[in-house]
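Researcher: Let's run the pair from yesterday's discussion. Sequence first, then tokens, for each.
Model: Starting with the first of the pair.
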Amino acid sequence: MLSERLLSAAVRALGGKYFRLEATEGLTELPDPEPGVRYMLYMHVPFCEVLCPYCSFNRFPFSEDRAKAYFRSMREEMRMLADKGYTFYEVYVGGGTPTVDMDELAKTIGLARELFPTIGDVSSETNPNHLVPGYLEKLSSLVQRLSVGVQSFDDGLLKRMARYGKYGSSQQILERIQAVSDARLFKSLNVDMIFNFPGQTPEMIDHDIACVKASGATQTTFYPLMVSPASRASIEKTVGHVTYDNEAKFYHQIYDSFCGGDHPEFRPSSCYTFSREEGQMIDEYVVNYEQYPAIGSGGISYLNGSLYINTFSLRDYRDRIARGDMSVMARTDFPKRDEMRYRFMMGLFGLEIDKREWRERFGCSVARGLPVEYAFMKANGAFDRDDDEKLTLTPKGRYLMVVMMRQFFIGVNSLRDQARAALPEDEARLVFDGIEAGRSDARCPMASGAAAASAVPASQA
């Protein structure tokens, strides 16, 4: 699709301009909060039991001592935000695997509620092997919105991604999610999926959709495969050669399956998130909250038109917090035009732009502020409603936003790649060894992780 290729190239060029990691001299803390702004707090937990070869997020192999020291530092950093006067209304805990140390996670969420009593819901990511009684009993008292990283219900793909041995077969994963759903432990239960894997077929997509619907989950997010330059080699070695030839076809297949017909079971809450009920929020904080400070190694904040990147080094993170600094080490400022581009992208990704709010914020219309972007989308049939009040999307427009978000997050992943490349040698070796362990697991899908994943029958979860 020509429009997809042009849009990919344009966003890639902008990403190359802004997603460059250069330490900002003298930067030791995030800015103070602005009056009247509703903030969400993001916490990053960079530990996994085994590292997936294709993942670009900041992560390290789990060890109990390393994790406990890290969580202590992250709680200190949270206190720094409280001292600066921040107020938060929601918390999102991402990773890595946030549930890798439940006792420390409980202490951290407990402190967040103590420091910021305005917090309503807490969202957390987890992996399928943690959907077992010991974890769920603690999680259900801490977290209202849980997102389970599944990626695919195809056993062949799970093996190639080094996930089968760690998390069990697709049937085991499905049964565990069904048990959690039946128990109604969480306000929102989201299943994270990925589409456009090499070798994926329409029949495999249909199977994934059927499993998500059968799981009873209240929400699902189908991400397009996002391949940064540094992760491409790992993906192609473990999964296969990446192309975008089938991406549009798969996306429309997914959207129509969830939201098509006269009485759809799901409704879109973003361009690639589908919910059974209104008011769901998992992985969508970039839409629901314009500004969000991030704590933890590898966290990325967006505040008042600037992007702030936290150190990726665990040792540097510990040292910064110990001397009373926050973990932020780099800052990129967006000029007004690029801030408009960011809000244009996030607004339409969330399915609409309120034109009145836009004019109040930027002092101009969308068409006047972003004439090239607006004209491109309009010429390509992206807009369904385009009047004085709102911009909404056609089916083609929704796919173009998926393309835009895919390229945007590839740019963010490139930023993470740069940060990882700058790690001290011993920490870089730690990550490399963890990735090699993941590759070994992919070659031997019934490795010891399978026993751990199957230790508790799904029917008991």
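Model: Moving on to the second of the pair.
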Amino acid sequence: MLGEYRIAGRGGAEIAASVERGIAEGALAPGQHLPPLRELARELGVNPNTVAAAYRTLRERGVIETAGRRGSRVRARPASTPREELRPDVPEGAVDLSTGNPDPALLPPLDEALAAAARRAAAEPTVYGSPPLVPRFARLARAALASDGVPEAPLAAASGALDAIERVLSAHLRPGDRVAVEDPGWGSLLDLVPALGLRPVPVALDDEGPTLRSAERALASGARALVVTARAQNPTGAAVSEERAARLRELLATRPTTLLVEDDHGHGIAGLPHHPLAGATAHWALVRSTSKAYGPDLRVAVLTGDDTTLARVAGRQRLGPGWVSRLLQHAVVHLWETDAVDGRAVAHSYDRRREELRGLLAARGIEARGRSGMNLWLPVPDETGAVARLLHAGWAVAPGARFRTSSAPGVRLTVSPLTQASLEPFADAVAAALRPSSGGRYD
């Protein structure tokens, strides 16, 4: 069953670590069945309860899954092999559209913001026991949220959107609970959910966000939480419209115990307005990170939500990192107060490149999705072939396998590295890659 690999260990933790080591080394492949509990217990000379504890730990970490009498097997994408590793090897000279990074030319210089934060720290040193939120940071964040119709609620800071989402899910859910997630969706979130021992339930989406039918089906199946991207959805560029937001709020009103998590990482780079779902259920959270507008290394996100959720998140945070660096909070305040980023100009730059590329592809008979942010989603019949042919032509794109659970194949195109001069050559390359023998038509 396991080939030459032998699981080892005397305690539950050792056995679990041995399985994870085998996966990391490639000796245990995704989908491979593990020995039955009693069989492995006999082989190791331990109590079956010890093996059961090891398997339970692995399930909670998202490493294996159990299907009743069919036994336990390595997950198709175990948590120890993140989706981010599903990327092409980009040769020297190729244009890399696969990373999903913002355009460095649109990011502000951070030297003055960090210097201002250092001066503030010298004047008012942070000590143990200082409030976790810088008051000015909280006031500016609250004002921005209020201007978009987000209800008044407690605030917290997190180290990026994924950190905030993990803390919110952990505050309410337990291993085995179901979480409704967008499909295609953010690969890091699709890794995080099973890593927490939670069970993802895919929700289909169109250009206006999660579809009502799919969201309703997911909640009816027992999903205790729903994660929605407000705009600039990764990888499809979807954005929740005003009408879709109203319909989703109506749906959530019928299931008020659902934990609603709203990700607005597109704040500051998306040209479309935010139509918040915040407050649609008893327990909710909305997170806005600064990474896309100010740079991936500025690990600060604003988190707001209902009293219970924020109290649980803050309490658990105190037992771990304690707080998000007040130096970074002061730096973000400086960027906000000096209007270091012209959000409209940034959004226009991404919108222009995205819409021009989509138009060029349409002229070649190719339909791409995406109405906000920096990404387009391109349905393809064969991901591997499309990625390989584009790479051969000097263009690296992200395979859809990084973002899909059960949705149809596709590739993600990030427009950030594209210049005006490169748009048409890239469109030609896409057409040739999809239909190399038909003159570029894809119909």
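Researcher: Give me one sentence on the second I can quote.
Model: Residues 95 and 395 are 5 Å apart (CA to CA).
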